[in-house]
Each structure stands twice: as structure tokens, then as C-alpha cells.
Amino acid sequence: MTRDDFEKGIDYVCGVDVSYNGRIASASAVVVRKIDLKVIEIVITKNEIKHPYLPGLLVLRELDPVLETLKLLKNSFQLLLVDGHGVLHPRRCGLASYVGVITNNPTIGVAKNLLYGTVGADDFVRYDGNMLGFAIKREKHSRKTIYISTGHRESLSTSIQLVKALTRSGNFIPKPLKIADFVSKNFCEL
Predict the structure, then answer these.
(1) Domains along the chain?
(2) Mean pLDDT, residues 32-57 taken together
(3) Which of 13, 133, 153, 186 is most solvent-facing, going by the fewest CB within 10 Å?
(4) For 85-99, what is each residue's pLDDT tens digit?
């Protein structure tokens, strides 16, 4: 999508992530207030893994745990960050796109690995002449990078601005996803 498709301002943001321990998937969703990044709600689920990991088809493995976890939220949000790709995907429809379409939420994909395309000198990720995402490095010489792409109902420029606004100084992962990652990994090991 090249334009934003949401009417009201963004006051609350949700981040969702899934971690694994053997055959168990632990998913967490974290809602934060955008203005000060204060945590409003955290929900967690554990599910048995139904599908093996297939490169490029993370949606098969993570969609059910993500949707089940999002259903438990009592607080509303206007933006969803998904640990996975949006349109920066070989099929131009990664996990963030699927979750956004199914839930009809404005959604941004934030991934830790580049699955598709090439990062240019301007940090935009392109494939076949199309601008599909943006790379943000932790530090100038660090290899740690996140790849932002539109999931659903968000433009790439808005996605980049929002991810930067939701990321604390010294970090490179937006706070809602950072907390969701921490919670899912620690809950998974219980």
C-alpha cells in the first residue's frame, strides 16, 4: 500500500511475537500507550506447533498463535506491529500482511532478517525496481538490523516514522515488539 488508510490518530500500539520451545509456541501481545510507551496490557498464550517452519511461509506456523493471542486483549489499539515481514516478501504478503488483512488493523512488519530484496545506500530495500521496505541498523557499524515493511493499511513512509517513534534511544527494536519478544521467550521456557 502506498497510502495510509486509517482515520483516527494512533494512541495505542500493540506488538505481537511468537517464540518456540520444542513443539510449543508461546505468543505474546503487548499494548503500549504511544505518547510515553507505558505498558497497558500483556497477554500470553501457549499452543502446540501445528506446522513445521518453511522458509517464506512463516504465516503457516505463526498465524494461529498470533490471532488467538490478539483475541485475548481487552484494550483496543490503532496500530499493530508484527515480528515478521509485510510486503517485503517473495509473495509480497508476509505474516504482517496476513494478520493485518484478517484483523483489519493497520499493520507494520518488523523483521530481523532480510528475506527478499537488496538494501540500497539510502537504506530502502528494493526488488526489481520496487521499494518494498526500509532497513534500520542498530549502530553505524553493527550487523544488527531490522527491516520495516507495510503490512496492511499503512504507507511505508508512515511505517518508518512510527517504528522510529516507538523505538527508545540505544535500541533498534520498537518497544512493543521488544517487550513481546522478551515475554514470549521467557514464558515459553516455563
Answers:
(1) 12-188 (3.30.2170.10)
(2) 92
(3) 186
(4) 999 999 999 999 999
